[in-house]
Design brief:
single chain; alpha+beta; Naphthalene 1,2-dioxygenase Alpha Subunit, Chain A, domain 1; Rieske Iron-sulfur Protein; 8-stranded mixed sheet; binds FE2/S2 (inorganic) cluster; binds fe (ii) ion
Length: 457
Amino acid sequence: MSRRDPAPPRDPALPPGAARCPGPSYQDILAADGDDPPPPLREQRYAFLGDGDIPFARYHDPAFYEAEMERLWPNVWQWACREEHIPAPGDRHVYDIGRHSVLVVRGEDSRIRAFINSCPHRGMKFAREGSRGGVRRAIRCPFHGMSWNLDGSLREMPCRWDFPHVREADFGLDEIACETWGGFVFIHMGAAPPPLAHQLEVIPEHFRHWPMDDRYVALHTEKVLPANWKMAMEAFLEAWHVLATHPQALYTAADANAQYDIFGPHVSRFIHAIGVPSPHLPRPVREETVFARLGRDPAALSPGTSARAEHARLLRAELGAAFGTDLSRVSTAEMLDSIEYFLFPNAFFFPGINIRLCYRFRPLGVEETLHEILLLQPLPASGARPAPATPIRLGVEDSYTTIPGFALAEILDQDTENLLLQREGARASRKGGQTLGNYQEARIRRLHLTLEQYLAG
Ligand code: FES
Ligand SMILES: [Fe+2]
């Protein structure tokens, strides 16, 4: 299909959502690789979820935001930190989500517990998010110095004589549910939450092939984005904006033929192949051209070799040496592709090797979002775990290109530059809602359907 084609003819025989981009599918590309990727990459799961518009008010109405603060965030599992952020007894991490705040602490018994980050005395936060240091043997309030043991039980109350009405047993910290998966610590503020596994759906089974606990945080960025958290996330839930937003990638990224999967209310996935050209390009592209666009020397590509296969082969050696680990048996798809799992409400996990990211999106206000990127690198074969990277904070205007050696900087800048225009345009709209593609934007629709379920309680 040419970039100039106005529209493919509509096939009345196809049910809604069944149409696909002409040209090779992701599964065709996988078959052509001829190696043996793990079974989850062979799976395809899509169902048509409707085609009504999604109201723009969801992105700027304070009442909608307030409903999310009341009914979504306190009632859903969220990744609070990595286990490596609190490796020793007494280490703590603060996780804020809107006005909610959680203190995650590793106990003397090495168990990780989570508490509402608010002093039972007069409400003081025990610590701010991002503040350094641990709580050591006790969680001590900075205001009047009351303290609690690492299991949340009351430890010490200065001027105890003035509180005859307080029973120690009733004055513990407000503990909430806490579980771990893949080296991530998850919290849930609800009274009787379902097990985390319920929300993770296929993720534990799929990620058996890509253990996330065997990785460490090699880079961590926190960027403020000028849009509602859902609008910001949706920029990362589909790949077909490559055509207009990232045109430099058209020779090396299969965009319109990306695969989209909906595994359940909470988990979806896209996979787009790297090292193959976009089906939008009007003419066949030579392998040497793709190889050159991948940053390789086209003269070094032997005749009959695909740029994708050769790029993967070279990367296995280069990244294997850089990580101090053996990547020789990793499939081409895992080496190269953008394999992106979304976990409702706000987390993304990329198990690939070259694209090895995690994202988290958190509302800072109705139209402001904190977007975190964690580069999760495989541990060296020695098993030694480097300390997690300290977050680098970027303001709305700051470019990712200020981070030395961050390969995705240009792409991420392009993604985030769209947001201000989209936010303003959505507010200016008289149409009142966004119209989604049935296949390529199905994950955005799934996000909204699940959100509606939470808001309905
Ligand atoms: S507010 Fe915490 S001890 Fe007073
Ligand atoms: Fe993008």
